[in-house]
């Protein structure tokens, strides 16, 4: 079966539904805009066609060095201001230098792109090259080279592979540059290089996301248009001579494992053979069932890693690379032989029809995954633009649709030849050869004796590990006060406390922290899970003082700046909303809510939209004051440090830190399941996401090791396990499927997760249940057990490879009370597990009769079968937990008088309402005047016809679903995206509140603009409180005010109701005006109102004959 060319050609832009708009400015700048309105986010990127290919011998590394200098300021935006500006706007940023181009990008809310345009235009033309900053940055780059290449055996191997394969072409040297050139290159050479290449006629501005192309063009012209066109940048035209014989090299390094890299010269993706080479790489390497991984990692078990890479996204011919890491008991030669055998096999045996189909499916899926985020899509389109045009991906996919098995075999024979091959091996020094680890491994790459562990008198635990291989240090602190200690109604407080604790102290503002950390190239952050908050940082060892100051100050003296708390609240709020569009996130959160029913683990650490709005700064201050204490804290420092000195400094800084009584015990234990619990989140998606599991044992349970092995065999071992082999490889039902045990301090959880098309959900669930039954009843084989055991023993040291990884592992060991002996005992305990142990834990700890089944997808199309599983209880949607507030009769009476003033019985008995009005709407693109006709049918249907000039838009709610129509396209709007503009609350808000059983309290006298008024507080169902201003004489509502949480933080929201007019038997305001923090956000001027005209239900139904545009399916 062949994937249709139409599907392949359109999948790249599936998420955006629009073509990329290309514009050329007068100064030569290329502008590309790709609309994608899936989320209010956009990525601004600037691409310069200059990379290491444009350098010359003796000047290598200049392109990358300039990338670093681009963050050092301009006369307008000084040093550090770029980073501060982007962070203040809640954005992310990064840059990349390649052989062929250099790119910079910012990811921001789509209403904040102006800052990116301004910053990028400024540094395109006005970059400072301060000599002192240049020298400092040169040293940073040299350290980066040491970290990424000089001290990384495999990084050095890749560098050598290109240097050996390319003799004449600039791909010979690395993008980071040769060390000698980094020592030699001057500031003036780099500045001249910048001025020559950073010009508009050598650049592309690419904007992807929730934007309007015309508005983007206007903004780009305003910011970039005045930059003068530069001289034409000469094109580098150097052809690598044909290779006429195999080239080999060896790198001797002291490493735990050896490896091999093979490179063949091949054309780029735009070449007529590019599509066939892409399919060849996919068949050989993509997925563990692909030829090379299956042969080397499964069948022969000679390699830990075995992959192929096609460097097709380059301007000139590059390399087809095969790379393998040998198992500890094998040699690089074994891996090389296995790779070459598979190359020979595909030259002799063309791929099967199934292999071709799988490859095409994987390529299509990969394109779709790449289009899911604006950042990923911008990188994809920008890379293609630099190579052969932004639409190269579409053209490549069209050609892939017609690639045959003979084409794949032909390119394998043509390019993967011995004479065209370069081979590099990473081998051990002769003196190290006898030290090879035994096949099964003996333990971690660190022993308990390497750890200095101290417990201070106040209960603070300190662990320090000296590692002097790199001039770096990682540090972390775990405070055992996580989200399980959130107060009801204020879920998310623990997480927000952790995030804010690292963002301000009495001596450092948030901006000062950012500048200090960025200046030294470090990192400093915090996270939170149910069991604890973790503060982590990475620094060069020479900057240890900064890291320790930030750590100790955050633990003891966090200041929680009000503005920063609001900024973080907005980020959390936006993240919670964005997660609702991610089926996997939704499914996991629902699963944990149900499986931990009645236990604090059941709520998401970040909280909910409602609970985040209820948290005050004082809540964070109190949480930190009461629960951040030395007797609940562990600190771990790993790296190029002196252990005794670090302990002394921490003792001096934290030795007098006072202990606390908290945290209290958790509210309750997780309740065991009672039969099957089913939760279906009905969303019109093409895929169904399934999470199936139940409550499990904590990490401290003695069966941990046997459970780890059992789960790996069932579904935990990547793509090589029972579930993956059956559901993915054999039946092709899912791209990703796996199982896991989540171990926490108290009850853990076991779950299986997969994504499949909705029509296959029933079959996939049946296979999951069958495998649970089989492993319980039949157990595992000795072969499965030994393979799994070998994997864990062999991979255990990898978990401690970096300083940061070791910090994480040691904090985990301390959190669960495992003791540092865990490091030396792990291997023996893993070896001690028998087949009988694994079979026993499968029977005891897998409980199909207590399963929680969560499905996110189209309920009508899945036909999910749960019959035959015993007792099944369907669980309803979670309701926001808000403390009940009893209404007060005096306040209720005032509201009743206000409703009576608007029409009383006529208002209460109203069946439908039609309103014509002029309105001012706010959108990410600004405020727009519009005419609206609003039709409302009680109790819960509405339709809004909106005319913005020539543009006509409809939005409706039929009582169960929201829909949107514009330009002939109908879209069903999900969840938080549904803008509820159509309820009676717009003109009759008190009626709507009354019907939603809002509690009214605290009647008091006041005034509004000098007029006597009665004030009443309205406690809404989401926990928010609005203050209502009622006219003392007419009793009509004059104003409501409250606080709303937005992606920018809390905002004071006011709505004014003016100029009441009678329309028939009811009286409504003819002018409604909304303000957000004092700025006009909405306005509604009524022209006419008609009451009870007999609106039909069909008016509110989504139009027929137009296919609804549903959210793109998520694949994993």
The backbone outline, from C-alpha atoms, is: globular
In terms of per-residue confidence, which ranges show pLDDT below 50 for 5 or more consecutive residues?
1-17, 430-444, 975-981, 1105-1116
Major β-sheet profile? 13 strands, antiparallel
Give me the number of helical elements: 35
End-to-end Cα distance, whole Å, is 22 Å
Q: Radius of gyration, Cα only, in angstroms?
A: 32 Å
Strand order of the largest sheet: 29-28-27-26-25-24-36-35-34-33-32-31-30
Beta strand %: 25-35%
Amount of helix: 25-40%
Global mean pLDDT:
85
Structure report:
Helices cover 36% and strands 26% of the residues. The protein is of the alpha+beta class and 1116 residues long. It has a 13-stranded antiparallel sheet. A six-stranded mixed sheet has the order 1-2-6-3-5-4, with helices on both faces. The longest helix is centred in the N-terminal third of the chain and has 20 residues. The chain is globular and about 95 Å long. It starts with a helix and ends in a 25-residue tail after the last strand. The N terminus and C terminus are likely disordered.
């Amino acid at each position: 079966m062949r994937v249709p060319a139409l599907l392949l050609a359109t999948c790249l832009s599936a998420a955006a539904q629009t073509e990329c708009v290309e514009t050329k400015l007068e100064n030569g700048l290329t502008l590309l805009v790709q609309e994608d309105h899936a989320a209010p986010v956009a990525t601004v990127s600037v691409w310069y066609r200059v990379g290491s290919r444009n350098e010359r011998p003796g000047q290598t590394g200049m392109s990358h060095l300039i990338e670093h200098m681009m963050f050092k300021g301009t006369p307008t935006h000084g040093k550090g201001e770029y980073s501060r500006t982007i962070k203040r706007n809640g954005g992310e940023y990064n840059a990349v230098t390649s052989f062929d181009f250099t790119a910079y990008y910012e990811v921001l809310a789509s209403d904040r792109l102006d800052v990116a345009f301004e910053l990028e235009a400024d540094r395109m033309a006005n970059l400072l090259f301060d000599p002192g900053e240049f020298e400092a940055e040169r040293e940073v780059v040299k350290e980066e080279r040491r970290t990424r290449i000089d001290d990384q055996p495999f990084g050095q191997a890749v560098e050598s592979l290109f240097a050996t394969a390319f003799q004449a072409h600039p791909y010979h040297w690395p993008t980071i540059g040769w060390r000698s050139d980094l020592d030699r290159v001057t500031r003036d050479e780099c500045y001249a290089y910048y001025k020559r290449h950073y010009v508009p006629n050598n650049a592309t501005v690419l904007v992807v996301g929730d934007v309007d192309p015309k508005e983007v063009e206007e903004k780009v012209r305003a910011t970039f248009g005045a930059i003068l066109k530069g001289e034409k940048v000469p094109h580098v035209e150097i052809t690598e001579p044909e290779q006429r014989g195999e080239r080999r090299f060896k790198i001797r390094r002291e490493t735990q494992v050896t490896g091999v890299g093979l490179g063949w010269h091949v054309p780029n993706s735009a070449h007529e053979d590019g599509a066939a080479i892409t399919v060849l790489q996919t068949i050989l390497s993509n997925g563990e069932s692909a030829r090379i991984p299956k042969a080397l990692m499964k069948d022969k078990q000679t390699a830990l890693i075995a992959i192929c890479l096609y460097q097709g996204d380059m301007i000139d011919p590059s390399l087809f690379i095969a790379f393998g890491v040998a198992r500890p008991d094998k040699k690089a030669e074994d891996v090389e032989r296995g790779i070459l055998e598979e190359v020979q096999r595909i030259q002799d045996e063309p791929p099967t029809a199934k292999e071709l189909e799988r490859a095409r499916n994987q390529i299509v899926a990969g394109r779709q995954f790449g289009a899911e985020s604006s950042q990923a899509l911008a990188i994809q389109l920008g890379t293609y633009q630099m190579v052969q045009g932004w639409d190269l991906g579409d053209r490549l996919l069209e050609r892939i649709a017609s690639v045959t098995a003979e084409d794949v075999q032909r390119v394998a024979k043509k390019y993967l030849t011995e004479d065209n091959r370069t081979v590099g091996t990473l081998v051990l020094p002769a003196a190290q050869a006898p030290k090879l680890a035994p096949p099964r491994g003996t333990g971690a790459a660190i022993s308990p004796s390497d750890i200095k562990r101290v417990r201070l008198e106040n209960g603070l635990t300190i662990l320090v590990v000296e590692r002097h291989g790199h001039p770096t240090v990682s540090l972390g602190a775990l405070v055992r006060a996580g989200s399980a200690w959130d107060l009801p109604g204020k879920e998310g407080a623990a997480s927000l406390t952790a995030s804010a604790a690292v963002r301000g102290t009495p001596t450092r503002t948030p901006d000062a922290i950012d500048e200090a950390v960025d200046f030294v190239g470090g990192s400093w952050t915090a996270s939170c899970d149910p069991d604890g908050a973790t503060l982590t940082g990475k620094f060069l060892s020479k900057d240890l003082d900064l890291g320790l100051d930030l750590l100790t100050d955050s633990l003891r003296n966090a200041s929680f700046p009000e503005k920063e708390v609001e900024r973080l609240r907005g980020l959390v709020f936006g993240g919670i909303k964005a997660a609702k569009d991610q089926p996997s996130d939704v499914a996991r959160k629902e699963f944990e809510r149900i499986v931990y029913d009645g236990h604090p683990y059941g709520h998401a650490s970040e909280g909910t939209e409602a609970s985040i709005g209820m948290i005050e700064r004082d809540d964070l201050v109190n949480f930190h004051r009461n629960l951040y204490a030395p007797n609940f804290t562990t600190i771990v420092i790993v790296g190029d440090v002196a252990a005794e000195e670090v302990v002394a400094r921490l003792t001096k800084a934290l030795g007098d830190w006072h202990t606390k009584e908290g945290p209290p015990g958790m509210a309750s234990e997780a309740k065991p399941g009672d039969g099957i619990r089913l939760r279906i989140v009905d969303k019109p998606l093409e895929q169904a996401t399934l999470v199936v599991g139940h409550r499990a044992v904590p990490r401290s349970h003695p069966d941990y090791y046997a459970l780890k092995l059992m789960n790996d065999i069932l579904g935990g071992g990547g793509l090589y396990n029972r579930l993956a082999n059956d559901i993915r490889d054999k039946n092709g039902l899912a791209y990703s499927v796996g199982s896991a045990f989540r171990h926490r301090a108290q009850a853990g959880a076991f779950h299986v997760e997969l994504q499949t098309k909705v029509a296959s959900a029933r079959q996939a669930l049946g296979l999951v249940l069958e495998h649970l039954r089989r492993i319980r009843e039949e157990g595992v084989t000795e072969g499965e057990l030994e393979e799994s055991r070998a994997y864990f023993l062999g991979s255990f040291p990898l978990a401690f490879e970096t300083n940061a990884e070791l910090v994480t592992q040691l904090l985990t060991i301390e959190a669960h009370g495992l003791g540092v002996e865990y490091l030396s005992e792990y291997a023996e305990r893993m070896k001690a597990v028998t087949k009988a142990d694994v079979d026993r834990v499968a029977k005891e700890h897998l409980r199909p009769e207590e399963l929680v089944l969560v499905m996110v997808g189209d309920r009508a199309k899945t036909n999910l079968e749960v019959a035959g599983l015993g007792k099944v209880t369907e669980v309803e949607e979670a309701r926001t937990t808000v403390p009940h507030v009893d209404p007060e009769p005096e306040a209720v009476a005032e509201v009743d008088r206000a409703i009576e003033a608007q029409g009383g019985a006529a208002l209460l008995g109203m069946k439908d309402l039609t309103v014509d009005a002029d309105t001012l709407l706010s959108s990410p693109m600004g405020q727009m005047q519009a005419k609206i006709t609003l039709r409302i049918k009680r109790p819960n249907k509405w339709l809004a016809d909106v005319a913005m000039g020539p543009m006509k838009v409809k939005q409706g709610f039929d009582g169960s679903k929201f829909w949107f129509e514009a330009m002939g396209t109908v879209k069903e709007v999900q969840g938080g995206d549904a803008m509820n503009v159509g309820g009676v609350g717009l003109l009759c808000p008190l009626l709507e509140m009354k019907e939603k059983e809002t509690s009214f309290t605290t009647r008091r006298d006041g005034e509004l603009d000098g007029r006597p008024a009665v004030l009443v507080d309205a406690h809404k169902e989401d926990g928010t409180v609005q203050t209502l201003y009622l006219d003392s004489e007419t009793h009509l509502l004059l104003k409501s005010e409250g606080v709303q949480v937005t992606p920018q933080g809390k905002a004071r929201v006011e709505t004014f109701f003016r100029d009441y007019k009678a329309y028939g038997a009811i009286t409504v305001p003819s002018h409604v005006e909304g303000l957000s923090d004092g700025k006009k956000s909405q306005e509604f001027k009524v022209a006419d109102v008609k009451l009870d005209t007999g609106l039909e239900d069909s008016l509110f139904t989504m139009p027929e004959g137009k296919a609804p545009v549903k959210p793109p399916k998520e694949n994993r």
